[in-house]
Amino acid sequence: QVQLVESGGGLVQAGDSLRLSCVVASGRLPTRIGWGWFRQAPGKDREFVARLTWTSLTFYADSVKGRATISKDQATNTVYLEMNSLKPEDTAVYYCAGGQGGNYDYWGQGTQVTVSS
Fold it and tell me: By three-state DSSP, how is residue 45 classified?
């Protein structure tokens, strides 16, 4: 069974930067897999943040465009989400997900990001 594990969350101040990581802790993923980052704030639905296709195309939500970068280290098979100029509204649990064709079959347990004003 595939298990994804996120890390890198925490309490930061507005304007700070952070980098979230997502590793495949167990299991084997299919080839040609794409990756996504999502987030869910208290009382809100989960929302898309960023996407990295298996062809290395990237897409971002308007709310983070210009402040976020999704990438993957092929050597370590680690997916990253770097965010800068963090805002209190970025506070959420952040999830990484993997799948094919924009459909995400594999999800991590999430990592909390709290941005204080």
Answer: coil
